[in-house]
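Progress note, project year one: complex with nicotinamide-adenine-dinucleotide.
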Amino acid sequence: MKTIRFGIIGCGLMGKEFASAAARWCHLVDPAARPEIVAICNRSEKPFAWFTENFPTITQVTHDYKALLANPDVDAVYIALPHDLHEQTYIDAIRAGKHLMGEKPFGIDLQANRAIADAIAKHPDVFVRCVSQFPFYPAVQHLGTMVEQKKFGRILNVQTGFLHSSDLDRDKPINWKRMIESNGEYGVMGDLGMHACHVPLRAGWRPMRASSGELKISSVLSNVVTERWTDKTRSEKTPCKTWDNATVLIHAHDPQTDNQFPWTLRTERIAPGEKNSWYVEVLGETMSAKWNSREANTLHVLDHQATGGAQNWQQLQTGYSPRYATITGGIFEFGFTDAILQMWAAYLHEMVTGEVPNSFAGCVTPDEVTVSHEIFTAALQSANG
Ligand SMILES: NC(=O)c1ccc[n+]([C@@H]2O[C@H](COP(=O)([O-])OP(=O)(O)OC[C@H]3O[C@@H](n4cnc5c(N)ncnc54)[C@H](O)[C@@H]3O)[C@@H](O)[C@H]2O)c1
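Model obtained:
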């Protein structure tokens, strides 16, 4: 099996998730390649001990990402940094000839994303994808197969979203994800939006354009908490200007059936009752399906033709039936860290073989990311106009 030697730039929450997935690569049956963590880079010292204690393969530990990119023993990099650092680090990685898995939103704004896209176009030998793991849940893979097999018929209505509630706590201090300078003008859309775009964009559904050329998109954006504690000492407050909640209505087009439909995309940090709910609902003329990570192992399917017109949602228990085979028995439950492992399996599989087993079993492409940026930018324009 081929080994791809990885450097991790940004050893925070997500840097550790990738390293942990790499550590249990033996979970996968016959993967096309395996990752080996050989280099790490982080601004602060703090996470280094966890990495070096758990990964004896690491030979480079640095605060300087350029030193990591200059390391000839690194084949590929995972970059999981605050959004204001995406543009420069992604472009530098691509120019250094390193394969790249970049975290969303893949550039702090549309302009940054376009600059990254330019670098990718100039280096076609470098394999680049963006992180988004939720479609790798077996139930969502099943929904993707329904799309491929045209089971929905004419698409009538699509709803996708990602909802959190931790920011209901007004006592929570501000961090980089709540600051425009580091998180970006998109606010919550930059943080959660790519996840909610992945399935519709992979299905080929795209926002329509008006005759003026503008995307047919409207939005309501809310900044609920306008100031937060500056730090954990809770002695002074600082303005919190990022959008907390976004509802975006997209006039979408399905090229499979050449029909138009409303796609409502919600990303919220202040959604009472929702701890970490990622969801997708597709209503079609012949069949419908819906899934929510709150009930991760159940796909709800409505086949009203098969049931003689009865409006009868059925529950399909998907168990542990991921796209990339593993050692786990099919009756067991699937969860967040399994989705991360599957996404990484998809990334390495596509990098090494040049293909994916089916279209929903691939990571987000740079072109799809750019469409997500166009959607968020149009949503900002709608809110400001
Ligand atoms: N896929 C997901 O589900 C998911 C979840 C959370 C975050 N993310 C994305 O991952 C990325 C990182 O988010 P996170 O939650 O891991 O953040 P984090 O704050 O936990 O980690 C970021 C790390 O980057 C380091 N860092 C900052 N500036 C640096 C620099 N100049 N050089 C080297 N290291 C530097 C910090 O010290 C920190 O350890 C973001 O793009 C975010 O949108 C994705």
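The chain has two domains: 2-130, 134-332+364-384.
The chain has a mean pLDDT of 97.
No further modelling is planned for this target in the current period.
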